[in-house]
Design goal:
The chain contains nine helices and five strands, in the order βαββαβααααααβα. With 232 residues, it is α+β, with helices and mostly antiparallel strands. It has a five-stranded mixed beta sheet, with helices on both faces. The longest helix is centred in the middle third of the chain and has 20 residues. It is globular, with a radius of gyration of 19 Å. 33% of the residues are buried.
Amino acid sequence: MARLSRLCLPGIPQHIIQRGTNRQACFASEEDFAAYSHWLAESARKYDVEIHAWVLMTNHVHLLVTPKTSEGVSRMMQTLGRHYVRYFNCTYRRTGTLWEGRFKSCVVNAEEYLLICQRYIELNPVRAGMVVSPETYVWSSYRANGLGQAVKLWTPHWVYNRLGKTVEERAKAYRALFSGHLDKQALEAIRVASNKGMALGSDKFKQEIEALAGRRVTPKKRGPKPRKEKKE
């Protein structure tokens, strides 16, 4: 079956997932996390990609970004991967691939899902039982979004900026969003869209993306199973 072309539309956020091959560890030390973060920042700046949220887990990565060009995300991830895999293989005296195929991604309707996506990303360590609160996990964007700390890697999205007039107001309003649980339907929608390379948003948003991208952005509906002929 032919693989769908990757969606990358300037000005529209994307949720990206990058996993270690066979779900093996792609970070083994604090230095590894720092190295990945460094090259992520460098690559994002080079290819005009804004980074709104991230979490670096032991064997996978989540990013929420907005590209300014149609090739920005792909080039950013290629450059990042080349630098980091070389570093990781050299550090641990290994060879071969580190990542599980190409990264997965989906475009996101900012009005509907941007802040939900950010919470989904930053709550990964909590769901994994690594920490009780997202603010105690160093390698995520929560300290920028939720505590208002200046982070080199971070560019707040305009939807986030609408939460308040000052840094303190925005951070306080953002923290309040974490008082409730994420809707299960929203969680499933994020996972399905990201893993299948679809669009995350309303039907209207999906129709607009299909018109812009020239390809479908919703999963194919399964047709009825063919009926078996009865043997005489």
